[in-house]
């Protein structure tokens, strides 16, 4: 990940096509030893793919089809799902009330 971050920093800084030496200098400038094999693997995976903006845009379209947990339920706005979530939230609140220290007859610092 640090190699990709260094690559992206160089591109954002105006270097449209960073070399392995450029990436290595960024990594080593923060006191981390750079591994040539990982730098070369990154550059070979990006080779022939176009600009970084095109790669990011392509990745965003691929990620848009991936469900994101609770966000998918909230964005659909389904009545059945919303009703079930509301009932679950009420049940959790009731359970919390039942498990409070007040019901046990003593508090944490008594």
UniProtKB/TrEMBL annotation:
Keywords: Ribonucleoprotein, Ribosomal protein, Signal. InterPro entries: P1/P2_N_sf, Ribosomal_P1/P2, Ribosomal_P2. CDD domains: Ribosomal_P2 (cd05833). The keyword Amino-acid biosynthesis does not apply. One of its GO terms (cellular component) is cytosolic large ribosomal subunit. GO terms for molecular function: structural constituent of ribosome. Residues 87-104 have a biased composition (Acidic residues). This is LANO_0H21682g1_1. Residues 67-110 are annotated as: Disordered. Component of the large ribosomal subunit (LSU). Mature yeast ribosomes consist of a small (40S) and a large (60S) subunit. The 40S small subunit contains 1 molecule of ribosomal RNA (18S rRNA) and 33 different proteins (encoded by 57 genes). The large 60S subunit contains 3 rRNA molecules (25S, 5.8S and 5S rRNA) and 46 different proteins (encoded by 81 genes). The 5 acidic ribosomal P-proteins form the stalk structure of the 60S subunit. They are organized as a pentameric complex in which uL10/P0 interacts with 2 heterodimers, P1A-P2B and P1B-P2A. PANTHER family: 60S ACIDIC RIBOSOMAL PROTEIN FAMILY MEMBER, LARGE RIBOSOMAL SUBUNIT PROTEIN P2. Residues 68-86 have a biased composition (Low complexity). Belongs to the eukaryotic ribosomal protein P1/P2 family. One of its GO terms (biological process) is cytoplasmic translational elongation. Component of the ribosome, a large ribonucleoprotein complex responsible for the synthesis of proteins in the cell. The small ribosomal subunit (SSU) binds messenger RNAs (mRNAs) and translates the encoded message by selecting cognate aminoacyl-transfer RNA (tRNA) molecules. The large subunit (LSU) contains the ribosomal catalytic site termed the peptidyl transferase center (PTC), which catalyzes the formation of peptide bonds, thereby polymerizing the amino acids delivered by tRNAs into a polypeptide chain. Residues 1-16 form the signal peptide.
